[in-house]
Specification:
With 444 residues, the chain is an alpha/beta fold. It contains eleven helices and 15 strands. The longest helix has 21 residues, at 116-136.
Length: 444
């Protein structure tokens, strides 16, 4: 795939319309009408996309006059992205094609408190095994790539891999010195991108059997991978890919996860909070329909929120927005892993531990009501494995609180629904951290 074909804003607009048109495709005339571009400009853009393998003919469609129009479609298998969800106790990884459809999925037990070296090694191994599965399942390809059309959240170009004696840090602050400092981005298409393409002296990650030689196992072709999106609990710095004091795991504070994984995988890496990634995936996938603002509340091993305001993911100036689970609703409540007392997360987890999902839903609804009153969102979406275990209970409990508050204010209640996708789609949303910018949808 020629990523140079995607370097313009107009190309991203056209590509996004091809994506949303689906396999039935869309004509050049329709593309011109919907983008406001001239027919000549659309013809040039679609020619470049076809040359780059991103678009193909999908047949012909009758027109009101003259010859039938050629219809174009997106080629989903032209590129892929990996999405990784690092939860407190589980790792989920997906390989998605350009439409966001999952081609391969892997999951494994994980202890986020086991130390950086253990977690990084496990993530690297799962990514390479996943890409190998994608190749064996027939996800198109032509090898791994190390270019990306535009940076997202800072540099996403990996530095060349270091020598074979380098090791991932073990989580202590002193180990970070061994990383060699932050990675320096290579210019787009520059020669230093060779590191990600198996250049001289490069070594595959030490993740066990999932090395480069195994990626095309069983005769399969390697899927062309644009990069890896990683989503995990916050707080963290999305732009620099550096973790802060992850709730319950303060030892991660200051750890440069993006740069470490970029070096180990020799692929672009983007890091974001799990709830932000899920919210991005939901926005790109149209889960909220025509609604411009919604809140995604993720209740799994912990509780957090992702916000889409005015059609864009709202991260805040320091990626601090959406720490939904740590609003205090009971001043003398139980202690929380964040250091406060009476946080929504602590109360909800305690209720679930007692087997009282209805009480957890009521507390969650109270916090959701606060959020709705503050931001006036159009929709509340619920996800995460705790919600998935009792979806009707949580939807009913949260909706009851919102309905009561809306009634007192004389307003229409904000609807509450379960978010589509497995586990709220965090891993799929992580893949969108790489895919969405290709379609001009970096923020949703």
């Amino acid at each position: 795939m020629n990523l140079g074909a995607l370097r313009s804003h107009n190309a991203a607009l056209v590509l996004d319309l091809l994506r949303t048109a689906g396999p039935d495709g869309i004509s050049r005339l329709e593309l011109a009408e919907r983008t406001g571009l001239t027919p000549q400009a659309v013809s040039k853009i679609t020619a470049r996309l076809r040359e780059g393998g991103l678009a193909a003919e999908a047949g012909r469609r009758a027109s009101t006059g003259g010859k039938p129009r050629t219809v174009l479609r997106l080629v989903p298998e032209a590129g892929h992205a990996v999405g990784v969800h690092l939860d407190r106790d589980e790792l989920t990884a997906v390989l998605c094609d350009l439409t966001g459809a999952v081609v391969a999925r892997r999951s494994a037990a994980l202890d986020l408190g086991a130390g950086a070296e253990t977690v990084v090694e496990r993530a690297v191994r799962e990514v390479w095994e996943l890409v190998g599965e994608g190749g064996r399942s027939g996800a198109g390809g032509g090898g791994l790539v190390a270019q990306f059309p535009a940076p997202l959240g800072g540099s996403s170009h990996p530095a060349p891999l270091r020598g074979s004696g380098d090791r991932a840090p073990r989580g202590g602050s002193g180990d970070r010195a061994a990383l060699g400092g932050p990675s320096h981005p290579a210019p787009l298409g520059g020669s230093s991108n060779r590191a990600a393409q198996g250049g001289s002296g490069d070594r595959a990650p030490r993740g066990g059997s999932g090395d480069r030689a195994a990626l095309g196992g069983s005769g399969g072709r390697r899927p062309q991978v644009l990069g890896v999106g990683v989503a995990l609990p916050g707080p963290l710095d999305h732009r620099r890919g550096v973790l802060h004091r992850v709730t319950g795991f303060p030892e991660w504070n200051g750890f440069p996860l993006r740069d470490v994984l970029a070096r180990r995988l020799s692929l672009p890496v983007v890091v974001d909070k799990d709830t932000n990634a899920a919210a991005l995936g939901l926005a790109v996938g149209g889960a909220a329909g025509a609604l411009g603002s919604f809140a995604y509340l993720h209740f799994g091993a912990g509780l957090g929120g992702g916000l889409v305001i005015g059609g864009a993911v709202h991260r805040g100036a320091r990626t601090g927005a959406g720490e939904f689970g740590h609003q205090v609703v009971q001043l003398d409540g139980p202690p929380c892993g964040c250091g406060n007392r009476g946080c929504v997360e602590a109360l909800c987890l305690a209720a679930v531990a007692r087997g009282d999902a209805a009480e957890a839903a009521r507390v969650l609804g109270t916090a959701a009501g606060n959020l709705v009153a503050l931001l006036d969102v159009d929709l509340v979406l619920l996800g995460g494995r705790t919600v998935a275990a009792a979806p009707e209970t949580f939807v009913r409990g949260v909706a009851a609180v919102l309905d009561e508050r809306a009634g007192r204010a004389g307003e229409d209640p904000v609807p509450v629904r379960v978010a589509p996708g497995e586990g709220g789609g965090v891993a799929e949303g992580a893949a969108q951290l790489l895919l969405a910018p290709l379609f001009g949808r970096a923020e949703g």
